[in-house]
Amino acid sequence: MTHSRNASASSATRKTTLSADGYEGRSLRARADPMAVRPLRDRRYVVETNTGTYVVDLEARSCTCPDYAIRGARCKHLRRVAIEVNERRQPAPTERRSVCAVCGRAVFVPFGATGPQLCADHEFESGEFVRDRESGSALVVTSVVHRRADEVVVEDGSGRTVADYETNADYGDHEPVVEAVYLGSIRAVDGRLEFDGARRYSFPASRLRHVDRERGDRPRPGGFQSQVPLAEA
């Protein structure tokens, strides 16, 4: 699946300062001077200050400011961008900003990632144990399909999408689809889960919950009529 990480909120227009206790020189100015950092589509960053606007290339370790152009120094703008990337206030050069399709939280994803994305609280990993909110049944995730639930057609011959099923009416049509198999349909071989022959089912992401986070989150009543079949693995 596409990995995503939660992103801290950061203003694209308002200049801000960062805690500067214990710093000096350019490192102090990088934190104490008001700046606004904004990522560009070419993987560089615009840095707005009270005295000018500059473009930082973090990968090339360069900046368009006079301090870098004249002295070749690692200027405060370059340092500020590195700080905000390291603190997850801004995406890295290989990332772009997106939002979680379930909760709307800002996330940073690989630059070429497409389709709906999930934050760390709502993403799933292959092999993870989950529970169906409708039936309460335990499943094992096989993959995350980064396509909308109203775009993924179920391979049962009905021509319906995952979102078309009545039991998925309470979950977002725009959410990515998670494929999983019911725990009772798989077997363990030499300590490893064997999925061959197990039928995979498809769910909007928010319909499944993490087993290790289910304390106090009781499943809603439901039954096996809520299953959405896909082609067999």
UniProtKB/TrEMBL annotation:
Top-level taxon of origin: Archaea
Every SWIM-type domain range: 54-86
Keyword DNA damage included in the entry's annotation: no
Compositionally biased intervals (Basic and acidic residues): 210-220
Renumbered residue ranges of the record's region Disordered: 1-25, 210-233
One GO MF term: zinc ion binding
Coiled-coil segments: none
Ranges annotated as biased composition (Polar residues): 1-19, 224-233
One Pfam family hit: SWIM
Entry keywords, A to Z: Metal-binding, Zinc, Zinc-finger
InterPro entries listed in its UniProt record: Znf_SWIM
Organism in which the protein naturally occurs: Haloprofundus marisrubri
UniProt name for this protein: SWIM-type domain-containing protein
